[in-house]
């Protein structure tokens, strides 16, 4: 079964982005292990890294 862990919602954010916004770093690490795209930049110019830094 294939699952796309990089799906975006109506706010153009991925699950990885929400995890980083909420400080759920252990869960984020799990998605990264499964090749989540942390370099994706949405229409608000946000990425996982930029969210963590801010």
Topology:
Elements: H1 15-21, H2 25-33, H3 48-53
How does this structure look, described?
There is one protein chain. This protein is mainly alpha-helical and 54 residues long. It has one domain (15-53). The protein has 3 helices and no strands. It has helices spanning 15-21, 25-33, 48-53. The longest helix has 9 residues, at 25-33. The protein is globular and about 35 Å long. The mean pLDDT is 96.
- Ends: how far apart? 35 Å
Overall average residue pLDDT: 96
Shape: globular
Q: Tally the helices: what do you get?
A: 3
Radius of gyration, taken over Cα atoms and rounded to an integer in Å = 10 Å
Instruction: Compute the number of structural domains.
Output: 1
Q: How many β-strand runs?
A: 0
Poorly predicted parts: none
Q: How would you spell out the order of helices and strands? A: HHH
What is the percentage of strand-forming residues?
Answer: under 5%
Q: How does the major sheet shape up?
A: none
- Helical residue percent? 40-55%
Question: Structural class of the helix and strand makeup?
Answer: mainly alpha
Give me a quick take on this structure.
Helix content is 41%, strand content 0%. It has 54 residues and is an all-alpha fold.
